[in-house]
Every structure is written in C-alpha cells, then in structure tokens.
C-alpha cells in the first residue's frame, strides 16, 4: 500500500562498525534516537551513506533490525526504509526476504550497478521486485554509480505499479516532472529529492520530502532548516542549508567518508562510519573537520 511520505528531512543514516566489520548496536541506536529528537520525517538505513554495498552479509539484516527496534523503543511512528541494492532480481529478493517481519515502511533499490541496463530492463527489474516484495518499493536514481539513469518516461510507467511507492533522485528536472505527473497517474507516489545544494529552491517547487546523508551529522541544523522552510522564512532556510553545505565541502576536501566518520565520532557516536579501505584522517585533517564543526556550533 502506498502511503505518501510527509514533508521534512530524511537522513541516510551512517552505519557504525567495529574493527571486525560488525555493526555497533548501541551506537546505531543512539544515532536513530538523535535523529528522532531532531524531528526527522523518516530514516533510510543502509543507503549510500550507510554503506549498504560494504556491509557484511552476516550483518545486513541485523543492522536493519537494530534501527527498526530503536524506533519502536522510542515509541515513534517515524518511517524506516532499508536499502536492498544489488545486481539481480534474485539477489535483491534475498535481501528483502531477510527483512521479513520487521516494522519497515519500505525498501530502497538502485538499478543493478555492475552492468548498465536498457530502460526496458529497468522497468522489468523494478516491476518484478515490487511484485515479490512484502514492503513498498522505492526506486533510487543514482546513475553516477549505477551507470543507468531511471528516465522520466520509465518512472512514470513504474509509478503506476501498486507496490512502487516512490523514487529518490538528485535530478531536479526529473523530480519536478514526476511531482507533476504523479497527480494524474499515482497521487500517493512520493518523490524524495536528494539534491542537497538546491534543497531550499526545490522545497518551493513542492519537493518537500528531502533525503541526504549529511543530515546524519547535522541534526541541530536540520531542525532549524525545516522549521524555516515550513514557515517560508527562506533567508533563514538558505543560511542553514549553507551551513550543511559548508560541512559537506569540508568532507570533500579531506575525503567524504573519512570526514563523515570523524564527525560522527566527534558527536559521540562510536565506530567506523567509513568503508574498511578508506584511510583515516591525518591530524591536520581532523582539525579541519573539528574547526568547521565548532564554527557551525555542532560541537
């Protein structure tokens, strides 16, 4: 059943791992609680920032369960979505099967990312996943990684499927087209926009459900940003968005995942939030991240 997602911010949660690559339950639960306290509209577990492609198979379902349980423990109705990205219908179906029985609002899948797909194959891929899944399916448009774009015409056809609930995309033009077209084809279809640099402008276009990994380490700023957007105080909203972009740009300059992991540790979340091959920051890089976070009053 399609339930349209509410306006607000949706963090792509980080995944805290120990030295053996196992999820640290206490840290992930604390991370979830922090986002709930910041009034997150929903949570994405094991998206790109949560390194779904790097999580060990043995830790995959456990990670989803920990996050789902943390929301339940907080007596929150916050939607929880889980990444199920993989390279075939069969492999995605196995991931979904491992999640059965969990209190989830949906699963999120990119196109397969080893081989590029035709649009006919994209449509077949999502239709067959959605027909098998006990959870609503959200498409994830990520052509820079997957080599395959989910084109507007394809997405319009797919939104008609009763179990395809929405799409996540950073393509503003695509998002605007789908936001208009859904009223004719599937009114409860959700467009989750993920183009961080233009979140303020996109909100004005009606793209009010916004998802990004940066939200995981900027909780206090997120709250200000979306209160400002809801009250149409665009000057304050743009200022808050600029703060998030400033930290994002700092991460880019030192290494995105290394910067993010160090920031999460600085905020009190234990564990490594970066792929196991990512180098640790140097002392100078750590100071660069910490200085930025201090200037933004995050620490």
TrEMBL record:
Pfam families the UniProt entry points to: DHDPS (PF00701)
Keyword check for Lyase: yes
GO cellular component, one term: cytosol
UniProt keyword terms in alphabetical order: Lyase
Any GO BP: N-acetylneuraminate catabolic process
Keyword Transferase: no
Lineage start: Bacteria, Bacillati, Bacillota, Bacilli, Bacillales
InterPro entries cross-referenced by the UniProt entry: Aldolase_TIM (IPR013785), DapA-like (IPR002220)
Alphabetized GO MF terms: N-acetylneuraminate lyase activity
PANTHER family: N-ACETYLNEURAMINATE LYASE
Family recorded in the similarity comment: Belongs to the DapA family.
Protein name in UniProt: Dihydrodipicolinate synthase family protein
Active site: 140 (proton donor/acceptor), 168 (schiff-base intermediate with substrate)
CDD domains: DHDPS-like
């Amino acid at each position: 059943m399609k339930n349209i997602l509410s306006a607000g911010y949706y963090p792509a949660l980080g995944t805290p791992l120990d030295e053996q690559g196992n999820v640290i339950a206490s840290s992930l639960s604390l991370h979830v609680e922090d986002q709930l306290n910041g009034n997150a509209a929903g949570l994405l577990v094991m998206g790109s920032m949560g390194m779904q492609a790097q999580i060990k198979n043995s830790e995959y379902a456990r990670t989803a369960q920990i996050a789902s349980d943390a929301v339940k423990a907080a007596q929150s109705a916050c939607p929880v979505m889980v990444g199920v990205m993989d390279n075939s219908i069969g492999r995605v179906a196995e991931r979904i099967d491992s999640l059965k029985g969990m209190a989830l609002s949906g699963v999120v899948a990119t196109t397969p990312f080893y081989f590029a797909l035709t649009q006919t194959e994209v449509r077949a891929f999502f239709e067959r996943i959605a027909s098998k899944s006990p959870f609503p399916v959200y498409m994830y448009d990520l052509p820079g990684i997957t080599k395959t774009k989910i084109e507007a015409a394809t997405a319009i056809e797919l939104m008609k499927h009763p179990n395809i609930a929405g799409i996540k995309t950073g393509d503003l033009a695509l998002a605007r087209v789908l936001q208009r077209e859904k009223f004719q084809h599937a009114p409860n279809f959700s467009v989750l926009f993920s183009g961080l640099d233009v979140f303020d402008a996109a909100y004005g276009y009606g793209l009010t459900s916004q998802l990004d990994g940066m939200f995981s380490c900027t909780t206090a700023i997120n709250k200000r940003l979306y209160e400002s957007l809801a009250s149409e105080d665009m000057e304050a909203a743009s200022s808050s968005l600029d703060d998030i972009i400033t930290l994002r740009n700092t991460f880019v300059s030192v290494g995105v995942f290394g910067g993010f992991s160090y920031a999460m540790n600085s905020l009190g979340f234990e564990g490594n939030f970066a792929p196991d091959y990512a180098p640790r920051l140097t002392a100078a890089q750590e100071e660069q991240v910490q200085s930025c976070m201090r200037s933004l009053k995050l620490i």
